[in-house]
Specification:
Chain A: This is 2-ketoglutarate ferredoxin oxidoreductase subunit beta. The complex is a heterodimer of chains A (312) and B (630). With 312 residues, chain A is of the alpha/beta class. Helix content of chain A is 31%, strand content 16%. In chain B, α17 links the parallel β17 and β18 (535-540). Chain B is globular, with a radius of gyration of 26 Å. In chain B, α8 (225-235) crosses α9.
Chain lengths: 312, 630
């Protein structure tokens, strides 16, 4: 028996595979956008024919961080902002795994902003879903990095003096090779995008607009969405960095004015993933490193044979 | 220990090749059959700034830098930015001369590169020479180097002169130069070496400092503490490292990064230390032996993932290379000020292993033990050491490293074992269920069929689901803490101890120490016993779980104990009192935190003055802190 026989195993494409058989039931508020992400992710995993045992879902802290409590796979519920470094190391250690990271806008764009930038830059082969509801939910409604300018909250009672962060543009500048925005109220598109993102060999960033009915009642995410790929008005080549950048700018300008555009903004299928780059230059083994620890026949090298000539 | 020793100090400017030259020289002395110990002193600058390396060589074993030195090779600082007496940092060009004179022993030899260094900058130079019976040899090494090659090769000229004056066989040096240098620079260097040698042979020798002769029973290797930690990790099957450069931890990180790709491993230099520690957790979670590390400030950032490793029972090894603090402190100077930081950092109750190796050979064995315990007990293990141990090169018998590799993942299950293990009703593997074995719940890794579970930093049920149930909380907390107690029992039952005793058995006085002070303290203990005091020492390496029984037996076997450590707040003494719950009246401290490690004479003086004579220490280099009962 192989050490990781779940990897590559085809399931019967039923999303119930990814639903825990018993408790816990989601603790999210009624009407929360997070339900939409969960549903889309389950649908995508089933459509891809993945097995729950070959997936690793890493999450951060916050309402979004509880995602892997309600999704049946290997999970690592990490700490504030740190889902990405944990996820990307797991992928390097065992490239056979399907690795997905998820977190909120505070978690991913605030405290974990540095990791986001560098994970995108390195183009790790993984999918990163950011639940963007423009608010801190679990800590009860503080202004987040994506909250619009002027947003009032208990910690910014005079209204935020800061411009919101522009996640799509930041992602493109940082180097992500697949960038999309979708929304909880658009479940079919959300599922399609997650499927594409997981299949994409490189860092896939999904800015997932989710509504927070409890703490962010004013948010614009309730308005109808326009799917840019379905509309001739937004015709652009999403493999062209410059055109993608312009579209992102337009979308991000318009987000708080009542127009919400979703879809694929940038897709670079040419660029090799980080793991591939490392293998090419000889910095990473061809076979999954983790496999070796379960291979009784592998001959482990020791320092005495390799290095001591240098020290004699 | 004997007086028959050469302690050679090469002084110059940072960037002048002091480190590489001394490394070669130390190796040559080792190959000639001597025991060597090097001590590095360098500024936090790239080029320019006074730096020296000291090599102590003796036919007998040497475990410390010794007191002072007897052979100075001063090259001057060719990268000095401030060649002026009134400059903020003083006259840097000449510093390698005047900064080093206080510790040059009576009768010592001084070789001065007159091409750069001017003895006139030293006040009363001639008087001091006469008073101390120093033997001064001046040569224009700079011009000699320029003549045959480039100015930086004047260190080779200095080595040539040293060989002539100290009676060292040149062939040892030449052999090493031939091994290390590319053809293009080898030729001029050999010419410089020979010419400098002849030049120094031509002058009259007035001194009697000579290199001793020695012979090794078995083959030796020259390694630093950083080398030993890296090799220990490699031999224990560690094939993943993630880090961010920070002095002095960078040395371990560099050695690993240079070797892991060849071994089919992975090294990642990442955006910060939080990421570095988190990557190590991610790789370990996925079934690889992984490590990360840093020094004080970087380790502060790692405290958050460290707590996550404790809560999720993710095995991992962290390395903490101490330098003087607080904050960024003195980046290139040794101190033992991070002990409490490493023991207690991160939120909640600590459940971790902390080892503080005392010597280069222990750095190897204890790093291996740290990995073994981490993966068996699913607990983070930390190896804490200081800049001194990390950087000092010493000879160790090669056979010490002739050990079998161990890549066993400890309490990690195979798929067949997972299939037989209890699962939750949801289908999840009960990863955090207690099986009655030392608090350890065997783990699965992602990709294994039937092994899925949730690892979370929140308190959780056996399958990993978050829970605030009081009963489960106490059960899980007790189980995690129980592992630490069982590790102590395991270590005690091994028959060998990480704690190293030294000195006479029927001692009246005791010296307790930890980490890199060991060799220095032991040398001081030998001298005290030679001087008629009855003293013994215990060097402690297990910081957590603490070796309570051994330390208690030691303290109780003597009348009074002096605790020697390199920090200002007596952290190890505090730990000892906390762990043993008493002895406040019996333990006093000798502390040093000026950026330089102890010399044996300081410990002898501190002990005699403070403990025996109950008097006040005259100097400002070390500090005595009396026992609480005084």
């Amino acid at each position: 028996m192989s050490a990781f026989s779940a990897i590559g195993e085809e399931t019967d494409k039923d999303q119930n595979e990814f639903t825990p058989g018993l408790e816990p039931q989601p603790t999210w508020c009624p009407g929360c956008g997070d339900f939409g992400v969960l549903k889309a992710l389950k649908g995508a995993a089933a459509e891809l024919g993945l097995s729950p045992d070959e997936m690793l879902l890493c999450t951060g802290i916050g309402c979004s961080g509880k995602l892997n409590s309600y999704f049946e796979s290997y999970g690592f519920h990490t700490i504030h902002g740190r889902s990405l470094p944990i996820a990307r190391a797991a992928k390097l250690a065992n490239p056979g795994l399907t690795v997905v990271a998820a977190g909120g806008d505070g978690d991913g764009y605030g405290i974990g902003g540095n990791h986001f930038m560098h994970s995108a830059r390195e183009n790790h082969d993984m999918t990163y879903i950011v639940f963007n509801n423009e608010i801190f939910g679990l800590t009860k409604g503080q202004t987040s990095p994506t909250s619009p300018k002027g947003h009032k909250s208990k910690t910014q009672p005079h209204g935020s003096a800061k411009e919101p962060l522009r996640p799509l543009s930041l992602s493109l500048t940082s180097g992500a090779s697949y960038i999309a925005r979708t929304a909880a109220v658009n479940p079919n598109q959300a599922k399609e995008i997650i499927v594409e993102a997981i299949e994409h060999d490189g860092f896939s960033h999904i800015d997932f607009l989710t509504q927070c009915p409890t703490w962010n009642k004013d948010a614009r995410q309730y308005v109808p969405y326009i799917d840019i790929q379905d509309s001739d008005d937004y015709d652009f080549d999403n493999t062209d960095r410059r055109e993608a950048s312009e579209m992102m700018a337009e979308t991000e300008d318009a987000l708080h004015e009542g127009t919400v555009l979703t879809g694929r903004y940038y897709v670079d299928s040419e660029r090799p993933s980080y793991g591939q780059e490392k293998r090419t230059i000889g910095e990473m083994p061809e076979e999954p490193l983790a496999e070796r620890y379960f291979d009784d026949d592998y001959e482990w090298e020791r320092s005495y044979d390799m290095f001591l000539d240098k020290h004699r | 220990m004997t007086d028959d020793e050469l302690i050679w100090r090469i002084a110059g400017g940072s960037g002048d090749g002091i480190a590489s030259t001394s490394q070669n020289f130390a190796k040559a002395l080792m190959r000639s059959g001597l025991h060597v110990f090097t001590h590095r002193h360098y500024p936090s600058r790239i080029r320019g700034g006074h730096t020296y390396t000291e090599i102590r060589a003796s036919a007998d074993e040497v475990e410390s830098r010794g007191d002072g030195y007897n052979f100075l090779l001063t090259l001057g600082d060719s990268f000095a930015r401030n060649p002026s007496e009134n400059a903020y940092y003083g006259d840097e060009e000449q510093k390698p001369l005047y900064e080093n004179l206080d510790e040059l022993r009576e009768g010592g030899v001084m070789v001065i590169d007159s091409g750069l260094v001017d003895t006139e900058v030293v006040e009363d130079f001639d008087e001091r020479v006469e008073e101390n019976d120093w033997h001064v040899y001046e040569f224009d090494l700079r011009s000699l180097a320029r003549e045959h090659g480039r100015e930086v090769m004047r260190n080779t000229a200095g080595v040539g002169v040293t060989c002539a004056l100290a009676g060292i066989e040149r062939s040892w040096i030449k052999e090493l130069m031939e091994e290390a240098m590319p053809e293009k620079i080898l030729e001029p260097n050999l010419e410089i070496l020979d010419e400098a040698y002849e030049m120094a042979m031509d002058v009259e020798h007035t001194h009697d400092v000579q290199v001793p002769e020695g012979e090794h029973d078995e083959e030796q290797v020259l390694l630093s503490g950083s080398d030993a930690i890296a090799y220990g990790a490699i031999d224990e099957g560690c094939r993943f490292i993630a880090g961010y450069p920070m002095t002095p931890w960078t040395e371990v990180f560099t050695i690993m990064s240079q070797n892991l790709p060849e071994l089919g491993g992975i090294s990642e230099q990442v955006e910060d230390e939080i990421a570095a520690a988190a990557l190590a957790l991610g790789a370990s979670h996925a079934g690889v032996k992984a490590m990360s590390g840093s020094s004080g400030g970087g380790f502060a950032l790692m405290s958050e993932p460290l707590g996550l490793a404790e809560m999720t029972e993710t095995p991992v090894v962290f390395v903490e290379a101490m330098r003087a603090g607080p904050s960024t402190g003195m980046p290139t100077k040794p101190e033992q000020g991070d002990l409490e930081h490493v023991l207690y950092t991160s939120q909640g109750d600590s459940n971790r292993v902390v080892f503080a190796p005392s010597t280069v050979s222990e750095a190897y064995t204890q790093t291996r033990k740290a990995f073994e315990l981490a993966y068996e007990y699913q607990i983070p293990a930390i190896v804490i050491y200081d800049q001194k141990l990390g950087g000092e090169l010493v000879n160790v018998p090669a056979s010490h490293f002739d050990e079998e590799p161990n890549a066993d993942l400890g309490s990690t299950l195979t798929e067949a074992e997972i299939a037989d293990a209890p699962h939750d009703a949801s289908g999840k593997f009960n990863r955090f269920r207690y099986d009655g074995e030392k608090g350890v719940s065997p783990r699965s890794v992602p990709g294994q069929k039937g092994g899925r579970f949730l690892a979370t930093g929140n308190e959780h049920m056996p399958a990993g689901h978050i829970s605030e149930d009081p009963e489960n909380r106490v059960f899980q907390m007790d189980r995690r803490m129980e592992r630490v107690e069982n590790i102590r029992a395991d270590l005690d039952g091994m028959g060998t101890s990480h704690q190293t005793p030294h000195g006479v058995s029927d001692a009246e006085y005791g010296i307790l120490t930890w980490g890199s002070n060991q060799g220095t303290v032991f040398e001081a203990v030998d001298r005290l016993n030679d001087d008629g005091y009855a003293v013994k020492a215990l060097s402690v390496s297990d910081m957590m779980p603490y070796p309570t029984e051994e330390v208690q037996a030691f303290i109780e076997s003597v009348d009074e104990v002096l605790v020697v450590e390199m920090n200002a707040s007596a952290q190890f003494r505090g730990l000892t009192q906390k762990e043993l719950g008493r002895y406040g009246e019996k333990l006093s401290s000798l502390l040093k935190y000026n950026g330089n490690p102890f010399e044996p004479a300081e410990i002898v003086e501190g002990f005699v003055t403070s403990i025996v004579e109950n008097d006040t220490l005259p100097g400002t280099e070390t500090k005595f802190v009396p026992a609480a009962g005084d």
